[in-house]
Specification:
Structural class: mainly beta
Number of helices: 1
Order of helices and strands: EEEEEEEEEEHE
Distance between the termini: 50 Å
Strand content: 5-15%
Helix content: under 10%
Shape: elongated
Radius of gyration: 20 Å
Length: 240
């Protein structure tokens, strides 16, 4: 049997239809591409949900009841809204594997984000973030971290615990150096540092054992000759 899907994609909605809250067996709820300005607390009653798509609406907040969706084990899309924050309760979604909260004016992220212990991919592009919470180090299964277009000057030391990371996008931030928290990550394959005001590239980057692509375009810097030789010897593509 397939999923029980309720799909209101681009349906011209200003409010969520009342029948949505009666769908207690709904597993996939798509409300993307509408004009929603509020998500009722009733969303917390949809205990069978596995995917919730709220992308590209006009939401300025999410209700704390979203933390009741503990069966949400696939995707939560809230990108392209007007969210100034994520509720602390989002950290209760311990089965969630994919979160896209990009393109929101997020002033900060809750420390509870580290509760998303099953998360594999986290997208936070274009949110105006100046820092990540230390709690991000709790995302021990994270493989992809997408942070393009923020104002980050570094990453918290706790990121050193993200031993499953394969891809990190830090393009168009405010980094002066490669974040030391990435040093020694055993599976990191792609590191995108494009368009950061880097002062240089630490030689330890060449020691990342799985690195396949290092993108330094529009930074004005490159690795040292010795580091370049080491990276080239392992077949790593370096762009500058």
């Amino acid at each position: 049997m397939g999923d029980v899907v309720v799909d209101y994609w681009r349906a011209g909605l200003d409010a969520v239809p009342g029948e949505v809250w009666r769908g207690r067996d709904t597993e996939v709820l798509v409300l993307a591409g509408n004009r929603l300005t509020a998500l009722p607390a009733a969303v917390g009653g949809l205990g069978a949900l596995r995917t919730l798509d709220l992308g590209h609406n006009r939401l300025s907040s999410l209700p704390p009841e979203i933390g009741l969706l503990t069966g949400l084990d696939r995707c939560l899309y809230v990108h392209g809204n007007r969210l100034a924050r994520l509720p602390d309760e989002v950290g209760r979604l311990r089965l969630l594997r994919y979160l896209n909260a990009g393109d929101n004016p997020l002033a900060a992220l809750p420390e509870t984000l580290g509760g998303l212990v099953s998360l594999v991919e986290l997208r936070l592009q274009g949110c105006g973030l100046t820092r990540l919470p230390d709690g991000v180090g709790g995302l021990g299964r994270l493989r992809e971290l997408w942070l393009r277009g923020n104002r980050l000057t570094g990453l918290p030391a706790s990121c050193a615990a993200l031993r499953e990371l394969r891809e990190v996008e830090l393009r168009e931030n405010a980094l002066r150096s490669v974040p030391a928290a990435l040093r020694g990550l055993p599976l990191l394959r792609r590191l995108d540092l494009r368009a950061n005001p880097l002062a240089g590239v630490a030689d330890w980057v060449a020691g990342l054992p799985a690195l396949e692509k290092l993108d330094l375009r529009w930074t004005g810097v490159r690795p040292s000759p010795a580091a370049l030789r080491e990276l080239a010897g392992r077949g790593c593509e370096v762009l500058w």
